[in-house]
Structure formats: structure tokens, C-alpha cells
Amino acid sequence: MNKNKIEVIKESPLWEKIDGVEELAENVFAKTWGYLQQNDAFGKFRPQDYGKPVSINLVLGDSAEVHRLNAEFRGVDKPTNVLSFANIDSDDFAAECEDGDIIELGDVIVAFEVLQSEAEVKKISLEHHLAHLLAHGILHILGFDHIEDDEAEEMEAIETAVLKEMNIDNPYKELVE
Questions:
Q1: What is the Cα Rg of the chain in Å?
Q2: Burial code of 123-156, b = ≥16 C-beta within 10 A, e = fewer?
Q3: Which superfamily is assigned to 5-165 in CATH?
Q4: How far, rounded to the nearest angstrom, does the alpha carbon of residue 101 sit from its chain's CA centroid?
Q5: pTM listed for this prediction
Q6: Pairing between strand 82-86 and 103-111?
Q7: Taking each helix axis from N to C terminus, what angle separates 21-38 and 149-165, rounded to the nearest 10 degrees?
Q8: CA neighbours within 13 Å on the CB side: how many for 137?
């Protein structure tokens, strides 16, 4: 059986500033997926119902592109750190899961300049912040959300557990000066 995969697409040369992005993305994807499987904590999508590997795309973009997408699809006229476009939200998703050898879950798009600015404010490495944003985006692709407090707590707990496995500090702890 084929393995789950993450395709990393560098759309901005700014991402060349970070070494090992592909390996980091693969590690975050594997750790997030592993945690969800081990804890039977999947959201709306239950991959075990299909017995097929899954794939996602990680698009490494810039603030201008993310700003455009955020305005177009969310009605928010500014850049953001990460956007997720989940195929699970498509009316045809269940039928698409039945076809083919792999289930395409969607895209996670990260804006380099926003990532960099937030990492500086939080006093953390670009790699650690990228790992957090990617785990967050993967959860969105699987149907998790953080609109309600209980949903936010669930997402934060999963993200924190995944990052802890990677020796990355809890991104939700208060910044201590």
C-alpha cells in the first residue's frame, strides 16, 4: 500500500531562507497523522473507512498571494499566516474518496512574511512556527475548526501534543519576557 504524502510547492523564493522545509513538512504530517490514528481523534473525515493513503499539498507562498486568497475566499482583506482549502468541504468528496488510489485532502498555504513576523514577535525559530502552522492547517483540512471554545481547545491540544513529540514548545503558552 502506498504511503501518505505531502507535496511541498515553493511558490516564493523567500522560502529558500529555511533549510529542510520538505523534511520538516514530512515530519509534521507524519506526526500529526500518527497522533490522530493513535488516539482515534479524526474530525469529520475518517480515513480508515476507505483504506487508502492520503495526500495534501503544502504551498509555500508570500503575503501578497495569501492576501489575495484570503480576500477572495474568506472576505478578509489582509494577509494571514496560514490558509487551508479542504476537499472535505466539497459535495463530491465522498465520491472522490471511492475513486483512485489516493485521497487528496486539500491545500495548506503559508505566507512567508507573516510567518517570519510572527516568529520574531514570539521569539521562536521559523521552523518551529512553520511546524505549528502546518499542524494547524492539516487539522483544518481534516475538518477540525476553532470557532467554538471546545473546538479550539481540542485543536490546541492536538497541535501541542504533536509539537511536543518534535521537541517544540507549546505555541499557546504565554510569552514570558
A1: 16
A2: ebebbbbbbbbbbbbbbbbbebeeeeeeeeebbb
A3: Metalloproteases ("zincins"), catalytic domain (3.40.390.30)
A4: 22
A5: 0.92
A6: antiparallel
A7: 120
A8: 28
CA-CA distance, 120 to 73, in Å (whole number)? 28
Consecutive H or E run containing 74? helix 63-74
User: Per-residue pLDDT for the chain (177 aa), expressed as one digit of tens each?
Assistant: 458 999 999 999 999 989 999 999 999 999 999 999 898 888 677 777 888 999 999 999 999 999 999 999 999 999 999 999 999 888 888 888 888 889 999 999 999 999 999 999 999 999 999 999 999 999 999 989 888 888 889 999 999 999 999 999 999 886 444
C-alpha distances in Å from residue 125, one per residue of 23, 115, 176: 16, 10, 16
Residue 10's beta-bridge partner residues? 60
82-86: strand order across its sheet: 5-10, 54-61, 103-111, 82-86
CA distances from 14 to 18, 116, 130 (A): 8, 10, 14
How far apart, in whole angstroms, are the C-alpha atoms of residue 170 and residue 13?
29
d(CA 148, CA 132) in angstroms, rounded, equals 20
Q: Give CA separation, 123 vs 131, 160, 177, in Å.
A: 15, 17, 10
How many CB atoms neighbour CB 163 within 10 A?
21
Q: List Cβ neighbours of 168 (8 Å cut-off, separation of 6 or more).
A: 128, 131, 132
Going by the DSSP 8-state scheme, the letter that residue 49 receives in this structure is G
